[in-house]
Amino acid sequence: MAKKEKDDASQTFHALVESADRKFGRVRDLPLYGRAPQNHYFQKVFKAYMRLWKYQQENRSKLVDSGLNRWEIGEIASRIGQLYFNQYMRTSEARFLVEAYVFYEAILERKYFDARGSGKPKVDVGVRFKELRFYARFLLVALIFNKVDMVRLLAERIKGLVDDSKTNFRETNFKEWKLVVQEIFRFMEVDTAFTNVRPLQYCALFDSHPASRPYLARFHAKKIVKFRDALLTSYHRNEVKFAELTLDTYRMMQCIEWEPSGSFFQKHPVESVYQKHPVESNENGTVIDHSGAASGLIDINMAADLTDPTLPPNPRKAVLYRPSVTHFLAVMATICEELPPESIVLVYLSASGKAACSNLSQAESSGESRKSSKDKVVSGVYDTEKSSGPESHCNGKRESSDYYDNYLWLGPRGYGGSNALYPGDIIPFTRRPLFLIIDSDSSHAFKVLHGAERREPAALLLSPLKPAFKNLSAFDTTHSGSQFTFFLTAPLQAFCQMVGLTSADSDMDFYNDAEEILSIAFSEWEVILCTSKSLDLVWAQVLSDPFLRRLILRFIFCRSVLSAFCPLEDEQYLPVCLPHLPNSVSARCEAVQSAVIRLANHLKVADCFQFDDT
């Protein structure tokens, strides 16, 4: 009878596993973008895993006697962590990220995949791959959750496992995992270059300025739009990345999130969540988990105690890894179609570009004359931002070819064709409000969008065509990320990188003082923008949004810094915004340049700049 009970328990368990895995596969394949209702699918698969987890907990002894391995329990818990993380990627709700982190951390602490805890002398190669995948998934969650110490720990664990696997599984190829290890440490090397700095997310403690708060509260534009959705992608050859998250998209993704580990999280540290509940081990090695995170008492609202209820929701983010042009446009179409009324979409594109003039010889060899296009690029791409309006051709009328002369590459290599994203491809989407950030060596080609919108004037932040560094030979953007994106997401670190400073050059108090200089400047510029009579409605309608306002302020800082740093204000090294911001926050105005001077003097790098006499 006892044997039959064990067999029945084992059969039921495996039937529940198969059922849950089928549902998991369907949810995993759902797109991670758009606002189509998908909670129904999520709840179904979640209930399936709740049922499975509860069953294995209630019948643990029978299942262990029937041959249940600890790694099988870990695999179930890992799937639940994946569910939470996928739901976070779909919704950008911080509580799902917290849940994923707690589940993965509990698996790590209980050593579900550790062969030494299974009673077996050697782990199976299949289980080793499961263990490696678990560590990689946990590392991605910890990276986005900004748990630097945990990221380092997991990176070392993965490296150790790969080294051990090459020794103990000589007949198995672990080449792909060796590449993963290289990716991890390359990413960490760049991301942790400045260790004594604050997170990239929006933190009310640092980014909300008391002096300007009353002006923001009283500010009213004729039209206000809400920042609800973002589309983020980068495509560069050999760019720094981990898994399907590139360094540039990671920085921008973090920049438009509320910081979840500020003063609230200091009172409720995530690291101690599982420690609040004791874990006991029976004589047979089975584990009795009293933690809500890994005991089977799975609650979708578990993160309620770990998230700050006073924070507004994060904007939804669709993060695309190396998309094709058609896929990018399809996702953009879906987001724009489902965008709620009176809302705006942020589109961030970081990619290499190609100017039509560089294709001249190729075009001529095919019998096509592109001299007029070449002339337009030379006169238009490097046009000064101080011009009174968008470029015009043919007696003031822009020709349709202007929208398809230059492009960005969303592909491995090539000249145009299916891998080319043209400025004209974006025009149909300007029926909805767009906040466009183009980071490319052909970014200025997108100036032609200004004035060509179908309905809603777009806000354009366009990068310089070339980066600027004190020691240019020491930097490669493919190894350190885009400079413009760095300025928009971490302005002080970008400033220091530009002039050749590192966090090792000074102590934390020194950098905190520098952050304070920036904070005071941003507060002053907020007041100027709020009280300006010449602020274009395109900027006024988003000024109330903390994320977009912060991007605008950092653009003002970036433009002023590069204007004073670069020789003769070469247009190739300067960013552009369209429509133009008021002259009261221009690159060389006293209110802006004085802050850059204070910062340069504080960091003792004023000799790197050419400031106007004030």
Automatic annotation (TrEMBL):
<dbReference type="InterPro" id="IPR022709">
    <property type="entry name" value="SCAI"/>
</dbReference>
<feature type="compositionally biased region" description="Basic and acidic residues">
    <location>
        <begin position="367"/>
        <end position="397"/>
    </location>
</feature>
<dbReference type="GO" id="GO:0003714">
    <property type="term" value="F:transcription corepressor activity"/>
</dbReference>
<dbReference type="GO" id="GO:0006351">
    <property type="term" value="P:DNA-templated transcription"/>
</dbReference>
<dbReference type="Pfam" id="PF12070">
    <property type="entry name" value="SCAI"/>
</dbReference>
<feature type="region of interest" description="Disordered">
    <location>
        <begin position="362"/>
        <end position="397"/>
    </location>
</feature>
<protein>
    <recommendedName>
        <fullName>Protein SCAI-like</fullName>
    </recommendedName>
</protein>
